[in-house]
Amino acid sequence: MRFYNFHLMPWPDLPTDYDDVKKHPSAWVTLSNSNYDPEKGHHLYNEYLDQLEYAEELGFDGVCVNEHHQNAYGTMPSPNLVAAMLARRTKRIKICMVGNGLPLRDHPLRVAEEVAMLDVVTGGRIISGFVRGIGDEYTSMGVNPTYSLERFREAHDLIIRAWTEDGPFEHYGKHYENRYVNVWPRPIQKPHPPIWIPGFGSRDTVDWCAHPDRKYAYLAVFMPDQLIKMFFDYYRERAEHYGYTASPYQMGHLVPVYVAETDEQAENEAKQHVLWLYQKGLRHKWEQFFPPGYATRDAMRSIVEHSGEMDFANFSFKQLNEKGFCIVGSANTVRERLSQYSNDLGHGLVLALTHFGDMSNERTRGNMERFSSEVMPALRKEFAYMV
Amino acid sequence: MLPLVNQWGRHLDHRETRIDVRGKSTQVLIGGSGPPLLYLHGAGGEVAWLPFFEALAEHYEVFVPAHPGFAGSDGLDQIDSMEDLVLHYTDLIELLNIKQPALVGLSLGGWLAAEFATRYSDRIRALAMIAPVGLRPPIVDIFSASPSETRAIVFSEPESDLARQFISDDPDPEAYDNYLKAREGTARLGWNPYLHNRKLEGRLYRIKVPTLVVAAGADRLVPQAHCRLYEAGIDNAQFAEIEGAGHAIPFERPAECAAVVIEFLTGK
Q1: Do B146 and A286 touch (CB under 8 A)?
Q2: Contact criterion met (CB < 8 Å) for B192 and A143
Q3: Contact: A144, B192; criterion CB under 8 Å
Q4: Which site among B176, B180, B195 would you substitute to test the A interface, given the most A Cβ atoms closer than 10 Å to its Cβ?
Q5: Helix, strand, or coil (residue B240)
Q6: Residue B17 pairs with which residues in a beta bridge?
């Protein structure tokens, strides 16, 4: 089992009347950036970066950063920038970008270049996630969501070719055209950095990841446990169908985790931050979360059908904790729950979101310390068979 | 976004056909008799035999096709721009063997009609645009609007039974599917730039056929000034206003809207 410290770098200071959902329907797209204070941002970014660097000291296997645009939920417009800041301040851990929002970029070769450069500078400590981006970001960035999936696939294919084939070669696709594809530098990891794909519930994505040409790790993001099980089972089923057995490291679970002395103390301390994440930071306008054509009509029907299971805006803290939207408790409780999850779900990648919502620096570092010293070692031992 | 409305169509006289337009299976409703009139629908994908069409059908043979990707038509994968859609309609007109139709378009369809007429003015008899978008971005964001917000944008009485018939809060599966298709088809053409073509205004001089612009008096999506831009850019264009109507004029005021269009076309 491997442990990654995930960060979203949220902007915690929402308007005082943010509870008025009519007035503030979303933490995305329309929430004014007048709510952002760069002076405080200066301290916050450095605090967050210090936390990520601290993860190396505490013995995590890696840190995860990501890409979000024009919102309070996560203030990293480019994961590559954050990875670059961490590249020379860390020595051992993996730096995972999960990931670059390929369709949102003007040209995928920028991603190929930047990730390759990071991989070379770090001597191969890069894990390269690719995402389509949250639906809202198509509105924020003016990118046509009806091309989201085909842009993602074409950009992905071009990046992989650019990393693995000798250039120059030509690429004339529907969305990207280049007479000369010849990316310098080339990545140091062969054939290329590992690729992780966060998923929100499309079976097609699971199948695409499981394909033997790729074998990409599929990451279940903020899902209730019964849905995760459905997707991980489907991953293993597709792998068998393709003639191989999936490794636990082809599946990852991203979840907010909080550890305190007792369950009660953990709940008291984490509750407001969990609710910030699910009820404030993840507040979307439905039509922006699912812009036109972003999900197929089949997927939309399934999303509407399952919307009750994902209705986290209306779940209490207790429900969120019980359903697996967060893991909050004493070290013993968290250890047991993670152990049970991994036994039930069969995944080997644990992506612990140790800071979430408006959590203070002190509380975050304490959480990271308790998680790494009281939870990780026992689980590493228990799941030592995962190699 | 307007889902397909079929509950009104049952007693009205029309037929439906399906035609292969260069690999795009295309749904077309046809009714009435007289000179041909081709209706280009709006962002809602209103391909159902509505009272507005029935009124026009008393004087014209009315053709109501679904754009690729909308309602009963497929082929959105072949459409990336208004240019593609204009060419699709030149093909459809040939395949249906319609000679010199009058082109009538609502909103998105009005924009499409203008794009068509700037290129193929000689293939149509007249042009009537109803609350057309296309020259400037509309003043509110329809892609971010919920069904109830959409009703408030396009209908003067958003909570009326009529408005709810077109845009339901709880659509049946077929209506929901048509809603998703209409949203995607519209976004394909008008996501960014938002439902307009900045070059179109400078091309309006190319429209050489009798033209009518119908504006809604209480339009919350397309201001009257926008309709006036069309009028100003096209030689001898006529302008009509339906007082008090919301953006969806032909749904709200079918008889009045049809009368204005028929009067214009009869004089031509």
Answers
A1: yes
A2: yes
A3: yes
A4: B180
A5: strand
A6: B28
How long is chain A?
387
> Global pTM?
0.95
- C-beta atoms surrounding A249 within 10 Å: 16
Pairing assessment for the beta strands B61-65 and B24-31 based on DSSP bridges: antiparallel
- Residue A89 at interface with chain B, using a CB cutoff of 8 Å: no
Residues in chain B: 268
**φ, ψ for residue A105 (rounded to 5)?**
-85, 150
Mean pLDDT by 10 residues, chain A (387 residues): 98 97 97 98 98 98 98 98 98 97 96 98 98 97 97 98 98 97 98 94 91 97 91 97 98 98 98 97 96 94 87 93 96 98 97 98 98 98 91
The tokens 């919502």 sit on which residue? A357
Angle between helices A225-241 and A331-345 (to 10 degrees): 30
The answer for B187, left when phi > 0, alpha when psi is -120 to 50, beta otherwise, is alpha
Give yes or no for a contact between B40 and B13, defined as CB atoms under 8 angstroms apart.
Answer: no
Strands B61-65 and A327-330: unpaired
CB distance A287–B143 less than 8 Å? Answer: yes
Beta bridge partners of A5: A63, A352
According to DSSP, residue B209 is labeled S
Tokens of A211: 């394909």
Tell me how far apart the 2 most distant CA atoms of chain A are, in Å: 62
How far is it, in rounded angstroms, from Cα A137 to Cα A69? 6
pLDDT computed for residue A155 by the predictor: 98
ipTM (interface pTM): 0.94
d(CA A290, CA A6): 25
Phi first, then psi, for residue B225 (nearest 5°) are -55, -30
For B183, the closest chain A residue by CA position comes to: A292
Q: What is the pLDDT of residue A263?
A: 98
Sign of CA dihedral B160, B161, B165, B170: positive
The DSSP 8-state label assigned to residue A98 in this structure reads: E
Cα–Cα distances (Å) from B56 to B35, B66, B102, in that order, read: 11, 18, 11
CA-to-CA separations, B166 to B106, B157, B218, in angstroms, rounded: 15, 12, 18
Q: Verify whether the Cβ–Cβ distance B181 to A297 is below 8 Å.
A: yes
B5/B50: higher pLDDT:
B50
Contacts of residue A360, Cβ cutoff 8 Å, sequence gap at least 6: none
